[in-house]
Amino acid sequence: MRIVNISSGSDGNITFLQTEKINILIDDGLNATQTIEKLKSLNISPASLNAIIITHEHSDHIKGVDLLSSKYNIPVFAHQQVWVGLDEKLKKVSLKNRKVFCDAFEINDLKINPINLPHDVPCYGFAIENENKKMGIITDLGHFNDRILSSLSGSRIIYIESNYDKDMLYKGTKYPLSLKRRIDGPNGHLSNVDSAEALERLALGGTRQFVLAHLSKENNSPLLAYNTTCKYLQKDGIEEGKDIKIDVATTNIGTIFKIK
Ligand SMILES: [Zn+2]
Ligand SMILES: [Zn+2]
Q1: Any idea which ligand is nearest the CA of 9?
Q2: Could you tell me which of 18, 83, 23, 84 has the C-alpha nearest to residue 54?
Q3: What is the pTM of this model?
Q4: Ligand found nearest the CA of 188
Q5: CATH assignment of the domain containing 70
Q6: How far is the CA of 123 from the centre of ligand 1 (A)?
Q7: Is 82 part of any domain?
């Protein structure tokens, strides 16, 4: 299984996943033209995509879906609860390409386990397996809990949201206080420290490779997210580069991870 971040953050989220048999996207939050351009830079034809799996209805996760699905006849998978909000927003996806799941499901050689995430709309992360190798992706969650931890256990690599720095969020003047509280609330997003705490628990569970994802453009920076997490782990004797590895996903195409 090959995994690569195509884009991550406030502007749009897309993760590409490839097995010997299929190519899929998790979310398509850039517009279709940008998505196609980025895929082509990786030598991936959009026509080769077998599925787009959607986490939730927010625009930074679905911007390109309508056009990509209708133009290339790509099935779009989302949880039943997510479709309630998506239905109106994805008008161009044909009836036969609207795929609904409620529990774990399979697409060719991939086993996909949805993980319900606490966000302000129905939202799912995924634990995805291919040939008994597992990866996890959790973005857009207000808090982490034991249920999410156990769903991700055994993952070789986990993409985890590290959305905002709390000081930057509250000291910045751009957002109204109500929005700051929504972001920081139990159904908003994970702060850098929230993410570090979760990452430590996942690392103690055996995962060695992490990617910090969905960083806010206004209230975070890749270096700040990385440093906050490393410092948090260091106090408990976990060293980045030695015990575990941490990458940061940005709006640029990221490291290509291969799980064999
Ligand atoms: Zn988002
Ligand atoms: Zn969201």
Answers
A1: 1
A2: 83
A3: 0.97
A4: 2
A5: 3.60.15.10
A6: 10
A7: yes
Task: Give residue 60 CA to ligand 1 midpoint distance, Å.
Answer: 5
Distance 238 CA to ligand 2 centre (A): 30
Ligand closest in space to the Cα of 120: 2
Asked whether residue 28 is assigned to any structural domain, the reply reads yes
pLDDT band (50, 70, 90) for residue 122: very high
In a domain, 260, yes or no: no
pLDDT of residue 260: 82
Whether 174 shows a pLDDT value over 90: the answer reads: no
Is position 103 within any domain? Answer: yes
Residues spanned by the domain of 98: 2-255
Per-residue pLDDT band for 173 (boundaries 50, 70, 90) equals confident
Cα of 73 from ligand 1 centre, angstroms: 25
Place of tokens 């156990």: 150
Total count of domains within the chain: 1
Ligand 2: centre distance to CA 92 (Å) = 22
Nearest-angstrom CA–CA distance, 65 and 245: 32
Cα-flanking dihedrals φ and ψ of residue 68, to 5°?
-65, -45
The alpha carbon of 155 and the centre of ligand 2 are apart by a number of angstroms equal to 23
Output b/e per residue, 81-118; b: 16+ Cβ within 10 A.
bbbebbeeebeebeeebbbebeeebebeebebbbbebb
Distance 242 CA to ligand 2 centre (A): 33
